[in-house]
Design goal:
By secondary structure, the chain is of the alpha/beta class. It folds into five domains: 15-172, 2-Layer Sandwich (Beta-Lactamase); 190-211 and 342-430, Glucose Oxidase, domain 1; 223-327, PtsI, HPr-binding domain (Enzyme I, Chain A, domain 2); 444-458 and 641-689 and 691-763, Alpha-Beta Barrel (TIM Barrel); 479-626, TIM Barrel (Alpha-Beta Barrel), CATH 3.20.20.60. The protein is built from 26 helices and 22 strands. It has an eight-stranded mixed β-sheet with strand order 7-14-13-9-10-11-12-8. Helix 16 packs parallel to helix 18 (555-568) and helix 23 (697-706) packs across helix 24.
């Protein structure tokens, strides 16, 4: 269907061809026969209707290779004999990139892979479309002709629609025996390493999230009726979203609320609605129109490197699934609450935030997805619901079956599928121990972190979302030592304006209830990308244009955030920390901007903060040689141990080969930390450490021995670190650490573990 603005959609000339193919495919599926004979008939019919010299069907095997399963026009001996490696040739490129290939003279294309056993040297033009379902590429459907020509938009549309039907038939089992053999037995135990996106430990049974409705009828008998079905479905969709978001567990303000509100806006998107209408007016059923628009959008967005667009695609997948269920008369969700086991672990390829909320939250224990990240929308909602969740669990959907026993370790990121009895026993003990320890930590919540020899240690927590704020009270932390403001920017569809930032920062201060909060200015760049901010690709983004460097180059960015900080903290204390400071002069520039904004507030009669403390994050090694110039300019400093260790050892912490290669309890980093303590003592500048080191009891012990008295960590780490502190004698550990810093070799780790064991300190 081709339309111009202001015109009614018109039917494509190719529509009869599409109808013919659909009718003949239905006839083939109704006939008796095995899978191979059906595939042979399918390619024969497609070639005939499209007037193609060749029609071939390639299916993806478990190892990622493509196998020629059926052909009309190529040599019959090539069937099941021709295999293409992942990404090999134009066909492999079509499958790997999930794109349509339309080449007028394919053999001349540099990516063309000639296979003599096929006899395809006679053919020039090639049209290939991916066979996909639920975001997974199952294979490739190809037509070829001897003439040199570019296939028309009508031809592309016919083949894409045909591929969609073939995909459904393959998955539904209508073409039995064609799917590649799975190399992993469904009865064997498996351990899958993923990435933790929500802390916790869950033992339960698999519920496969298979929300996709199989669309069996593609062509509309009555377009007017289908258009009415679509309109009614969209209305019901919007009503259901409003009802879902009114739930008391989700109605409270927070980042999860912002995510869900943004998701709801998709259902009201006029562009999406227009494309659905046009597809129905072009002759498709309402259900097929939803599937078609989704596939077209997915083809454009799936391989976008930008996390913003990948997240938009997940939202659209979720929304389309909900609309398909409504059109199919199954609005209640993919599974009825009564059918869910009481210890449900959801397993999915991908999942949107609203999809997760369709399930009975009283029976949910955990979530495992094949894609996603700690900043994905479903991760934010999973955290809000208190689920143990793991992402990037590659292959979990293929390996898991409904009802399988499963363990989700949201601490390590491991998933144990069909675990052996001894593994279940070990994790059961671990879960009981974790629950017991958690109760012990809760009992310590109101108890100050004071060592056996009377040294008070200030334990603060790291946060980045409003949804994290309840953890301040739950953990017993003394305050927030690091509030990562960039997460609000990363999760927003557009740049957060002054009002939105102001509201967030004010809410954080309100919920802190008088406890100190250290806001870190925007720290983007590196692996933290804002999709709406134009950035050039960098060879070394971690040491590139990021954090305060970007903010100083874009004064409006810094000015807007500083203004929001100052207004949110009106008549209150504001602690503002500058990230990625590389030289003391950068602090002068930031302070000048802060002073300028305070002057504007005073002229407008707006009360400024009653107290303003400006600090610097020590992450860049150059500052170690400029401490006497920096420390007099700031009110406090905080060590970002993650980046400091990365730069100190020149080891990318995101690189698995080198990220864990170097120990933070060796001589070099400990001497750096010791010098920072001495320098801050000279200038009477408060010092905090807010990296991962602070949250590990053994590393925290070493830091306390060096003289650190304020540590900031993840909320879950406050209890274990406090427990260690209550059993610690600072004087004793100080002697060990100072001796090692002076003349030690190797790592201090073994000696500290021995010390902890001898003194009954829990690590």
């Amino acid at each position: 269907m081709v339309t111009k603005r202001g015109e009614e959609p018109r039917v494509l000339p190719s529509e009869p061809a599409l109808r013919i193919i659909m009718r003949r495919l239905r006839d083939i599926m109704a006939e008796p026969g095995d899978g191979q004979s059906r595939l042979d008939k399918i390619v024969r019919q497609i070639a005939g209707v499209m007037v193609a010299d060749v029609c071939s069907l390639y299916l993806k095997r478990q190892d990622g290779t493509l196998e020629l399963f059926a052909t009309e026009g190529l040599l019959p001996a090539a069937v099941h004999a021709t295999r293409l490696k992942r990404g090999e040739g134009l066909v492999g490129r079509c499958a790997e990139l999930n794109i349509t290939i339309n080449e007028p003279d394919a053999p001349k294309h540099p990516a063309f892979s000639y296979r003599p056993e096929t006899g395809e040297e006679l053919y020039h033009s090639m049209l290939g479309v991916p066979i996909q379902r639920s975001g997974q590429t199952l294979g490739v459907l190809v037509v070829q002709n001897k003439t040199t020509k570019e296939y028309s938009d009508e031809d592309v549309e016919v083949l894409e629609s045909t591929a969609m039907v073939v995909a459904e038939q393959l998955v539904s089992g209508a073409v039995a025996g064609t799917t590649a053999a799975l190399e992993i037995s469904s009865s064997l135990a498996a351990v899958i390493k993923g990435q933790s996106i929500s802390d916790g430990l869950a033992l339960g049974h698999v519920v496969l999230h298979e929300s996709r409705i199989v669309v069996t009828k593609l062509m509309a008998d009555d377009p007017v009726h289908e258009l009415r079905r679509l309109e009614n479905g969209l209305t019901d969709l919007r009503i259901s979203l409003d009802e879902m978001l009114a739930h008391e567990q989700l109605s409270a303000a927070g980042e999860h609320r912002d995510v869900l509100d943004a998701y709801r806006m998709f259902a009201h998107d006029k562009g999406w609605e227009r494309r659905l209408r046009e597809a129905v007016q072009g002759g498709l059923t309402a259900d097929a129109a939803v599937e078609r628009v989704l596939n077209n959008t997915r083809s454009r967005l799936m391989h976008q490197p930008d996390p913003f667009w990948r997240e938009r695609q997940r939202d659209l997948d979720d929304l389309s699934d909900r609309l398909l269920r409504i059109l199919a008369g199954r609005p209640g969700g993919p599974i009825e609450p009564a059918e869910m086991p009481p210890d449900t672990i959801l397993v999915a390829r991908t999942m949107g935030p609203a999809e997760l909320l369709d399930y009975d939250r009283t029976k949910l224990r955990g979530l495992v997805v094949e894609d996603g990240s700690p900043q994905s929308h479903v991760a934010i909602v999973a955290k809000a619901l208190g689920l143990a969740a793991v992402a990037r669990a590659t292959g979990i959907v293929e390996r898991a079956s409904a009802g399988d026993a499963i363990i989700v370790d949201g601490v390590t990121g491991q998933v144990h599928l069909r675990p052996q009895p001894e593994v279940v026993s070990a994790y059961s003990d671990k879960a009981r121990f974790r629950a017991k320890r958690q109760k012990q930590y809760e009992a310590l919540r109101e108890k100050p972190a004071i060592t056996r020899d009377g040294v008070r240690i200030n334990l603060q927590m790291n946060a980045g979302l409003i949804v994290d704020m309840p953890h301040l009270e739950e953990s017993g932390a003394d305050g927030i030592g690091l509030f990562r403001t960039e997460l609000q920017f990363m999760l927003s569809r557009t740049f957060p304006r002054h009002e939105k930032q102001l509201k967030t920062y004010r809410t954080v201060l309100d919920e802190a209830n008088g406890k100190p909060v250290v806001f870190r200015a925007l720290d983007i760049g590196g692996d933290k990308v804002l999709p709406y901010l134009r950035q050039q690709k960098e060879e070394n983004p971690a040491i590139g244009w990021r954090a305060i460097r970007m903010s100083l180059d874009r004064p409006a960015l810094l000015r807007t955030q500083v203004r929001a900080f100052l207004h949110a903290a009106s008549e209150r204390e504001l602690r503002l920390m500058v990230p990625m400071v590389s030289e003391a002069a950068e602090i002068d520039l930031v302070r000048a901007q802060v002073d300028k904004e305070i002057g504007i507030m005073l002229r407008k009669g707006v009360p400024p903060p009653k107290s303003l403390k400006l600090g610097a994050m020590i992450e860049v090694p150059s500052l170690l040689f400029e401490l006497d110039g920096l420390l007099p300019k700031v009110d406090f400093v905080s060590i970002g141990s993650n980046d400091l260790m990365q730069f100190l050892f020149a080891a990318d912490r995101t690189n698995a080969r080198v990220g864990s290669r170097y120990d933070s309890l060796t001589v070099a980093p400990l001497r750096v930390f010791a010098e920072l303590v001495k320098a801050c003592a000279r200038h009477k500048t408060p010092l905090t450490l807010c990296g991962e080191m602070a949250g590990r009891p053994l590393e925290a012990m070493a830091l306390i021995g060096l003289g650190y008295r304020t540590l900031s960590m993840a909320p879950a780490s406050v209890g274990p670190v406090k427990s260690m502190i209550l059993g610690l004698h600072v004087g004793a550990v100080q002697q060990i650490v100072e001796r090692f810093v002076r003349d030690g070799k190797g790592s201090l780790r073994t000696e500290l573990m021995r010390f902890a064991e001898q003194n009954g300190i829990e690590i």
